[in-house]
Design brief:
It contains 6 helices and 11 strands. By secondary structure, the chain is of the alpha/beta class. The chain has a 7-stranded mixed beta sheet, sandwiched between helices. The protein starts with 6 loop residues before the first strand and ends with a helix. The model has no long low-confidence stretch (mean pLDDT 96).
Length: 176
């Protein structure tokens, strides 16, 4: 999937994603030189945001693997609740976390981290309403604009996107 010698990113999509939480990372990563693929349940399908703006999946989650990417981003909105109904999307996140790839989740995105079972004992933030879900999955809740714990980078809301992406890019830089 990635460009030879290049850097590659996956941004996950499903219906009812939060517009800014998908598009800001897509453009910010492209600006930083990443080949960004929008990954959904089905390749070529369009998924409407909470506000109706469509995002077309470049590839299906079942057709990629974590090794194809340096970073996986999980936007929020209500899309993570739909993403976790697709086993291949959960597996992509679980494998990326296990391989030490940078995994970023914002707003309701940590729901996918819960389903991927990759936050046990890890510091995590997100939209305040999912605090119980994070804690029930073994995560240690932190209320911060950007919480970094190893390769896992989380954030709360669209307002935090600049700090979230700074955290993502700093974590990627540390990994070389």
């Amino acid at each position: 999937m990635s460009i030879p010698g290049g850097k590659s990113a996956a941004v996950l999509v499903e219906k009812f994603y939060e517009d800014l939480e998908l598009w800001y990372p897509v453009y910010r990563l492209r600006e930083a030189g990443y080949d960004v693929k929008i990954v959904g349940p089905k390749a070529g399908e369009s998924y409407a945001s909470k506000h109706g703006y469509p995002a077309k999946a470049d590839v299906a989650a079942a057709d990629v693997k974590a090794d194809d990417f340096d970073v996986v981003i999980i936007p929020g909105g209500y899309s993570p609740d739909h993403m976790r109904r697709t086993p291949a999307m959960i597996q992509l996140v679980a494998d990326a976390a296990k391989l030490g790839k940078v995994v970023g989740a914002i707003c309701h995105g940590p729901w996918m981290l819960c389903s991927a079972r990759c936050i046990q004992g890890r510091n995590v933030t997100g939209f305040f309403a999912i605090k119980d879900d994070v804690e029930n999955a073994g995560g240690v809740w932190q209320d911060g604009a950007c919480v970094r714990d190893g390769n896992i980078v989380t954030s709360r809301t669209p307002e935090d996107l600049p700090v979230f992406m700074q955290g993502i890019l700093a974590t990627l830089a540390q990994q070389g």
